[in-house]
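User: Quick sanity check before I run a bigger batch. Here is a single chain. Can you write out its predicted 3D structure?
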Amino acid sequence: MKAYAIYGKEDMRPLELEFPPLEDQALIIKPQAVGICGSDLRQYFQGPSSRYKLPVVLGHELSGEIVEIGSEVGVYTVGDLVTIAPVIPCMRCHACSHGRDNLCELSLITGTSFDGGFAEAMYIPPQMVQAGGVVKVPKGVSYRAAALTELVSCCLHGLRQFKIDIGDKVLIIGDGPIGLVFLQLVMLMGAGYVVTTGRRARRRDLAAELGADEALDANSVNLTEHYSGYFDSVIVATSNIAAAEEAQALVRPGGDLLLFSGYTPGTMMTLDINALHYKELHLHGGVDSTIKDFRNSADILPQLRLDELVSGSWPLDKIVEAFHAAREKDAVKLVIEP
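Assistant: Done. Predicted structure follows.
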């Protein structure tokens, strides 16, 4: 089966995948849509981090059609449209036994240490099937929207670190696909006033269309001047360190700050410990998602407007061109359709 694997910085090549004999509790799927994530772009344009087992097939935001089923798999049928969780947990370690399987140190990560979806077919091992990480897509949800379940689940997991109360004022710094999913989720949770900031006009327009009360131009607005101590929660959905540092001043006393973006190893930021202490600020991180978060995210797909985030699709053999197109100013979320 043809796939595209990353070997190093700006080095992605076609690869023929060879699957083991189908195990009794395994599946094979044909990917239908695979999102190009910001982390995929970082690994390609900046070079893979040490987490990546090279060569590896990227692509962890995906939906696919089941084409083969192991003899002991009874929950699925050939032809089912499914979506796949990003983490294959061991389900035995301390993190897994405490419901934090996203932090499993023995896990395999789709598109990082285990081949992902930028391929004509994908082998889903028994461990993933048994953990519940293969989820049927609700009726009426498109395969493109279903591919973004992983993105939704990671945002939902981040929001589980604190509580959004009805009527809360929320700021989302960054209006890329992640910021636009956060926008929809906090609105579903009852937030009363939601502000987004970003640097691309198309994304600001989309944020407004999706319901943001304000969609601000980060190039021209001074957030500290206008919103100091104003927000109940601030979500930083960009890897801009200056934005993360400024965000501390935007949270009200007792409020929550979620740092939700991938940063390169060794990245540091200035933290105002005095403000953290005297304002009782709550600082949170969030990475990947648990199987539970993923399954919950699949359930709410019909309530989200995910198709509107997909600004273009590319065939598998044009994947390198697609990666470059994903950096263009009008791009929101691009998907590969193998």
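The chain is about 25% helix and 25% strand.

User: Great, the batch can go ahead then.
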